[in-house]
Amino acid sequence: MIEFILLGIAIFWLVLAALVRRFNLEEKGVTIIPLLLLMVRTRRFLSFITTLSTRVKPFWNVYALVGVVVSVVGIPVSLGYFSWNAYKVLSVPKEAVPVVPIIPGVTIKITWGLLIGIAIIFFVHEFSHGIVARKEGISLKSMGLLLLVVIPGAFVEPDEEEMKKASPLTRVKVYSAGSLANFIVAALFLGLLMVIPQVPDGIAVYDTLSGTPAEAVLHDGLLIHTINGAEVNTYDQFSAELERYSPGDTLTLGTDEGTIPITLTQHPSDPTQGYMGIRPLQHVKYFQILDIFSWIFMLNLSVALFNLFPISRVLDGGKITDEILNHYFSESTSKKLGTAFAGLAILILAVNLLSNVIT
After folding, report:
1. How far apart are CA 111 and CA 288, in angstroms?
2. How many CA atoms lie within 13 A of 32 on its CB side?
């Protein structure tokens, strides 16, 4: 399956590259490195960002300073969290939190919640950078959308020369603004998730496993309410009911699409246990809304923490770390320390990614 996905991605990029060259889109602000990066620049909306930055100036002044505090505290917190998880990966893999790069359609299923969450991440992150930059008197060259392999994103380009001439505190304010916006959005949607009641109303089929009975008769998103007439609206009810059956038993599933018969096979880890071959997901009332809100919360929190990782000259956390080191050390020493921090951060991140292999 993965080979077809990769082939599809390659064909998509080849077609995209051909269209860019055929219509001379480079002259209209499009930059492409086939199979790797696509950037679409525009100067539209820059005036809107400028207008926002001039409104309620006291608020944006406080906002920028809060961003600095949050980032200075968040950088060691981010480094500490990923370091602790890396230790778990190496010592007790089962207790480590899996770290998976979000690649829509490859590492994670595409849902409305995922797509809306990604859009909100980049919108608030980049607009926050742009608003604080303009508030600090730094011009914006452009803004736009990007695609890194298959990961969508957005960007705002401050004027590099003006950024270099700005004070270290101004640069830190600009770098800090993105993560602060993501933290605020995450907190807002966490609050909404806590307010909305979560009432179980069935078991959703997240996906079916290849070569199992479910593959032939069930499909992703199907909602199961009963098994042989017994209510299974919660995961515990579903699991307990399935344990009553053996390989070869035929069940009648009551679903949101009517009744569906399915004959069980042997469970991979217990030959005496019946097995249908689905990955079940607890479904609740207002599931679509809760799913969207959950994605917005998780993605914004994850991006805010990851963005504060101290990888020099790449992530905002690394740029802020560079500014702090430049303030306290000579240029040569700060560069060496920045490189050392970046190397350590990349090593820690690599160990975290191993959690998907080890566990």
Report:
1. 10
2. 19
- Asked if 128 and 105 count as a contact pair (C-beta separation under 8 A), the reply is no
Contact present, 91 and 203 (Cβ < 8 Å): no
What is the predicted pLDDT for the residue at 131?
94
Strand-pairing partners, residue 256, are 258
- Say if residue 358's pLDDT is above 60: no
Query: pLDDT tens digits for 240-298?
Result: 999 999 999 999 999 999 999 999 999 988 889 999 999 999 999 888 899 899 999 99
**Long-range contacts of the stretch 197-201 (C-beta < 8 A, 24+):** 197/285, 197/286, 198/284, 198/285, 198/290, 199/284, 199/285, 200/233, 200/234, 200/235, 200/282, 200/283, 200/284, 201/225, 201/233, 201/283, 201/284, 201/285, 201/287
Q: What is the dihedral sign for C-alpha 237, 255, 116, 3? A: positive
Gyration radius of the chain's alpha carbons: 25
Q: Both tokens of residue 128? A: 């926050």
Lowest-confidence range among 20-24, 282-286, 293-297, 316-320?
20-24
Burial class (CB in 10 A: 0-12, 13-18, 19+), 73: exposed
Do the Cβ atoms of 93 and 358 come closer than 8 Å? Answer: yes
For residue 231, report the phi and psi dihedrals to the nearest 5 degrees.
-65, 135
User: Which helix H or strand E contains 202, and what residues bound it?
Assistant: strand 200-208
**Non-local CB neighbours of 331 within 8 Å, separated by 6+ positions:** none
Name the residue with tokens 């995209």. 16
Domains of the chain: 36-194+290-358 (no CATH), 200-285 (2.30.42.10)
One-letter amino acid for residue 288 of the chain: Q
Cα 74 from chain centre = 18
Separation of alpha carbons 121 and 303, rounded Å: 8
